[in-house]
Design a protein that fits this description.
The chain is an alpha/beta fold. The chain has three domains: about 10-165, Globins (Globin-like, Orthogonal Bundle), CATH 1.10.490.10; about 175-270, Elongation Factor Tu (Ef-tu), domain 3; about 290-415, 3-Layer(aba) Sandwich (Rossmann fold), CATH 3.40.50. The protein is about 40% helix and about 15% strand. The protein is built from twelve helices and twelve strands. The strands form two sheets. The chain has a six-stranded antiparallel sheet with strand order 4-3-6-1-2-5. Strand 11 (about 385-390), helix 12 (about 395-405) and strand 12 (about 415) form a beta-alpha-beta unit. Keywords: Detoxification, Dioxygenase, FAD, Flavoprotein, Heme, Iron, Metal-binding, NAD, NADP, Oxidoreductase. Pfam families: FAD_binding_6, Globin, NAD_binding_1. One of its GO terms (molecular function) is nitric oxide dioxygenase NAD(P)H activity.
């Protein structure tokens, strides 16, 4: 573990030499009150605190830098997520069982990234140090810091134990070497990448439709590997021992621009096993129900195998797909193929938000040159159906809120999001 850095406070030093030895310790009433007293602070200044925490950690501990996306730091989406988690932890300090869903989300996220027990002391050390520096001695007094030290240790213990049980059941741990075997342009700004194990004897793991993998990229000029998560945009090709991901190019995106400009057949990357809970739900009692899918932009990637699975099960599918325009719409050939193969079993409704006119050859089933409206969602809801939703934050927030207003039960809406919806 890294040595002590100048400026780090003594209150958190104990974590640096505690790689996996956390023990559950019950908080007393006084300590719980210190945690509760953090609620208004986290509500008003949580994002500022977590932003400074990440700056401290990423500056002083280069070993954790591969796990974090600079774009997410700049947009504050990562600090918002951590602030959200800390706030909910404080709000539920008297009954942590209410956090079981949040804990499961964190575990899935950590396992996807291959976070290990030895990373937790760094986070705890920097978090407590930041609290003391930002809040000052009047608030972050010895009792306050002791309470949060115990609270963090308890949370770390819970997460480490749960993650360990998942790792023990994975087909491999860490990042196996995979080789790029094919690259396909899906639109002007989306490229599909096919990977196969470098070791021909190594067999890929099956995945549930909708799951994702994490790729460890070696970007020229960067001193460390860079990790990024990608939904599998096709059910794993077990016969040919391949995975496929699809990457949209965005401005200032280090990895996505590398993929579009420099990645080539034969390049080697690290790949972690498939994980994720945004998956096709198949159980006795729902096989006759129709499926309604909402996807915005590159959010289509996990939806592809979900749609295919539902169609193979004989279920009717309505697929509502939003893009900016026809040149930014990926997977046109796939959309044409499933429509041709399944005919009236699938209904495709597309929305192009920035297109005033569309050539007839671009219309596959039904296409509107406008954004998705509430009336569209209301029209699509059947008496009982399974719903899958993925896309940009604002898109997901809008669609989910409208579904709930229309009386759809939350457990009928499968989505993949961690933290607060934010721009």
């Amino acid at each position: 573990m890294a040595a002590h850095r100048t400026g780090d406070v003594n209150a958190a030093n104990g974590y640096k030499n505690q790689p996996s030895g956390y023990q559950l310790k019950e908080l007393n009433d006084s300590q719980k009150q210190y945690i509760r007293s953090s609620i208004p602070i986290l509500e008003s200044s949580g994002v500022e605190l977590t932003k400074l925490f990440y700056q401290k950690m990423l500056k002083n501990y280069p070993e954790v830098r591969p796990y974090f996306n600079k774009v997410h730091q700049k947009s504050l989406s990562q600090p918002r997520i951590l602030a959200f988690a800390l706030l909910n932890y404080a709000r539920n300090i008297d009954n942590l069982t209410l956090l079981s869903e949040l804990v499961d989300q964190i575990v899935t996220k950590h396992v996807g990234l291959q976070i290990k027990a030895e990373h937790y002391p760094i986070v705890g050390h920097c978090l407590l140090a930041t609290m003391q520096e930002v809040l000052g001695r009047d608030i972050a007094c010895p009792g306050f810091l002791e309470a949060w030290t115990i609270a963090y240790g308890n949370l770390a213990k819970i997460l480490i134990d749960k993650e360990k049980s998942v790792y023990e059941n994975q087909p491999w741990n860490g990042f196996a070497e995979f080789e790029v075997v094919k690259l396909i342009d899906e639109s002007f700004d989306v490229k599909s990448v096919y990977f196969a194990p470098k070791n021909k004897e190594f067999k890929i793991a099956p995945a549930y439709p909708g799951q994702y993998i994490t790729i460890a990229w070696k970007i020229p000029g960067l001193p460390h590997e860079t990790l990024r998560e990608y939904s599998l945009s096709k059910y794993p090709d077990i016969q040919n021992n391949m995975y496929r991901i699809s990457v949209r190019r965005i401005k200032d995106g280090v990895v996505c621009n590398y993929v579009h400009e420099h990645l080539k057949k034969g390049d080697v990357v690290g790949v972690s096993p498939p994980v994720g809970k945004f998956t096709y739900r198949k159980f006795e009692g729902n096989q006759s129900l129709p499926v309604l899918c909402f996807a915005g932009g590159i959010g289509i990637t996990p939806i592809i195998s979900i749609v295919e699975s539902a169609l193979l099960d004989g279920r009717k599918v309505v697929f509502c797909y939003s893009n900016r325009n026809y040149v930014s719409r990926p997977f046109k050939n796939w959309l044409l193929q499933i429509k041709d193969q399944y005919k009236d079993q699938i209904k495709l409704k597309e929305f192009f938000s920035q297109e005033a006119y569309v050539h007839n050859e671009e219309v596959i089933d039904e296409l509107m040159t406008r954004v998705l409206h509430r009336a569209d969602i209301k029209e699509l809801i059947s008496a009982d159906c399974d719903i899958y939703l993925l896309g940009p934050n604002n898109y997901m927030r809008f669609v989910k809120e409208e579904l709930l207003k229309l009386g759809v039960q939350p457990n009928k809406i499968a989505t993949e999001f961690f933290g607060p919806y934010s721009p």
